[in-house]
Automatic annotation (TrEMBL):
Gene3D superfamilies linked: 1.20.1280.50, Ribonuclease Inhibitor
Keywords, ordered alphabetically: Auxin signaling pathway
Phylogenetic placement of the source organism: Eukaryota, Viridiplantae, Streptophyta, Embryophyta, Tracheophyta
Keyword Magnesium: no
InterPro entries: COI1_F-box, F-box-like_dom_sf, F-box_dom, LRR_dom_sf, Transp_inhibit
Location of the F-box domain: 45-86
Region forming the signal peptide: none
Listed name of the protein: F-box domain-containing protein
Pfam families registered for this protein in UniProt: F-box_5, Transp_inhibit
Source organism (scientific name): Salix udensis
Length: 191
């Protein structure tokens, strides 16, 4: 178990099993600073140190909480996150996700509300995955994992996924509809 304590000009990483380290910083290194628009440096830690600290946080809730500390932490967290969970595909556009998180390798995307499982939503109500795949193909060609829940996934979308993501490894379709064995055959052939 690791415990991270932050102080004004240093932080401590306590590994309860073996080690104790204190890192002291003299201030940000201008050569190592990433450029973010409208960013003012409020943290004494360079972005690389913040990214390293954030990489030690495994819980998505913890990562989301520390991203609210200040703009620097928000930016560093966005550069170190490799998995994104989107609980409602209508709450954010794929372009905003791609702009906020540049190195995503894994995405969990939920579409229709739960009551759609009981046929309480009109037939062609939405939750189409294809617009998401088009954006992800340009921004995340290194995408490895896609978990979809209650999304409309066409055979064309599965073929697009199979052809445009060369490192793709994991596809999970939970309560999704709109596809046939032809789309699954494209995934099996290309991935």
């Amino acid at each position: 178990m690791k415990i991270i304590c932050f102080h004004e000009k240093s932080f401590t990483i306590l590994n309860t099993e073996t080690e104790f380290r204190v890192f002291t910083l003299m201030g940000p290194n201008p050569k190592m600073k990433r450029e973010f628009p409208d960013s003012t440096r409020s943290s004494p830690f360079p972005d690389e140190v913040l990214e390293r600290v954030l990489s030690l946080l495994q819980s998505p809730k913890d990562r989301s909480a520390v991203s609210l500390v200040c703009k620097d932490w928000y930016n560093a967290e966005s550069w170190s996150r490799t998995h994104v969970f989107i609980g409602n595909c209508y709450s954010v556009s794929p372009e905003i996700v791609a702009r906020r998180f540049p190195i995503i390798k894994s995405v969990t995307l939920k579409g229709k509300p739960r009551f759609s499982d009981f046929n309480l939503v009109p037939e062609n109500w939405g939750a189409d995955v294809h617009p998401w795949l088009v954006v992800f193909a340009t921004k995340y060609p290194f995408l490895e994992e896609l978990r979809l829940k209650r999304m409309v996934v066409s055979d064309e979308s599965l073929e697009f996924l199979a052809v445009n993501f060369p490192n793709f490894k994991v596809l999970s379709l939970f309560s999704c509809d709109g596809f046939s064995t032809d789309g699954l055959a494209a995934i099996a052939t290309h991935c």
